[in-house]
Amino acid sequence: MQNTAIEISGLHKTYENGFQALAGIDLEIKRGEIFALLGPNGAGKTTLISAICGIVQPSAGRILVCGHDNVADYRAARTAIGLVPQELATDAFESVWNTVNFSRGLFGKPRNADYIEELLKRLSLWDKKDEQIRRLSGGMKRRVMIAKALSHEPDILFLDEPTAGVDVELRKSMWAQVRALQETGVTIILTTHYIEEAEEMADRIGVINKGRLVITETKDALIKKMGKRQMVFSLREPLQDIPSDMADYALALADNGNKLVYTYNAHQEDRDISDLLECLREKNIRPKEIESRQSSLEDIFIQMVG
Amino acid sequence: MNYHGIKAIYAFEMGRTLRTIGQSIASPVISTVLYFIVFGSAMGSRIQTMDGVPYGAFIVPGLIMLTVLGQSVSNASFGIYFPRFTGTIYEILSAPLSVIEIVLGYVGAAASKSVIIGTIVLATSAFFVPLHIAHPLWMVFFLIMTSVTFSLMGFIIGIWSDGFEKLQLIPLLIITPLTFLGGSFYSVKMLPPFWYKVSLANPVVYLISGFRWSFYEHGDVNLGTSVTMISAFTVVALGIIAWIFKTGYRLRK
């Protein structure tokens, strides 16, 4: 069994109109992980996924899916993949049951009514199986798309913006379903521009911007590496200016001098804080309250792509 | 070969036909009846024979061809254009299917539908004129080859179109005139020599001629030419489709 689900090297894509969507992507995704591809609109997330799935022809580069080249050995590569695209594209007049069985057939698998039944039950679609898709709500359609993608029991599932325009409750239940899938051994790659989603779900995060992967890290390492911490001192007496001999610290005044904000990096040593506290005591600056903040992925993200 | 994939597309497309079974059958039957009333009875009574065949019977092969050509092109073009329009094509493109398998599924279904409708038109004709089929196997051959070739062409049109207008454009501007001028209702041999020569540039002439020969052993051109021409069309259509998938034209960005 290969340890790598996806291996991409030197992937470039320039569209016919000259737009360069991917500018040299190298990426390795391990089996069984949840990988979040994070980036602003137009960063190249969907192009990258489409190239892996064979919908977009890359201009250069190589993609291996479970060790199979996705061009030379496209059957094996594509059989391993299930794709839930961003757009809700469904056959409006088909029933849920037919459309999911159709997808399974397309991917070369013989009919398996038991598996499809189990799948539809898992996605709470079983009671809608004979309904025409056009009669379903948006959230249900989204789940039909997921059922179609899982109909052929893929090893790798792509979710392109799975929770765009989905309400909070459904989003939470989708996250739970994705985690349950991961437990069955499926590798999951999701794109999102909701930081919250990546933070909640992902084992590893790749940030993509203007067709390049800016960073690929485990979520915790990313926060540690890039994360800023802030300590906010609410003062008993407002301060006019920061004392000049404290300029070494990244200090700032806020709230008309009632608050002193100290910004530092997460990987900095704790010594600095005790130094700072000592320094404040010497100057007789007395905080009545201390609050500490840690930057979220969102802050990190804005810092990287902004 | 991904047989399950071919079967899935074929069954899906045939299912689409079955959902609209009423209009699928009613429209060719009604138009056939109308043609027989106008050309067979009203005008045909003034025309004794055409190329040695009673006029009512003479137009049967032409009528079937008229319907089969139109149905093939519209079914196949719609079949592949609609998923492109709704976006569901992503699934076909990301599935482990080769070009041949995709074409077998879509074109196979469109051609099957055409053969069924052609047969229905033939059966309807039997109510109006005594039918005589001299070479049933050749008739089936021409019916199937024409359905397949024009479904292939429809498939190409469905990929080339980037709007519903274009989907109608080729059938309206090219297929329908070529069918009417290809000898559906007359023998091109009746034309003045110049227009007869011009007509020979019309590929549909060879289809109708071969098909009519299989009924009455009379054709505008000889059988060998008809068979060669229809085979050539098939090869050309297959070549274009191979090119489309190789370059990803209008399918893969």
Question: Can you put this structure into words, describing what you see?
Answer:
The complex is a heterodimer of chains A (306) and B (253). Chain A is an alpha/beta fold and 306 residues long. Chain A has 2 domains: 4-224, 3-Layer(aba) Sandwich (Rossmann fold); 228-305, Alpha-Beta Plaits, CATH 3.30.70. Chain A is built from 10 helices and 14 strands. Chain A has helices at residues 45-53, 74-79, 96-106, 113-122, 138-150, 168-183, 195-201, 219-226, 271-282, 297-305; strands at 4-14, 20-30, 34-38, 60-65, 68-69, 81-84, 156-160, 187-192, 204-209, 212-218, 228-235, 251-254, 259-265, 287-294. The mean pLDDT of chain A is 88. Chain B has helices at 3-19, 21-43, 55-86, 89-94, 99-125, 136-160, 164-180, 193-199, 203-216, 223-247, and strands spanning 49-50, 53-54. Chain B is an all-alpha fold and 253 residues long. In chain B, strands 1-2 form a two-stranded antiparallel ribbon. Chain B is globular, with a radius of gyration of 19 Å. Chain B has one domain (3-247). At the A-B interface, α2 and α3 of A face α1 and α4 of B.
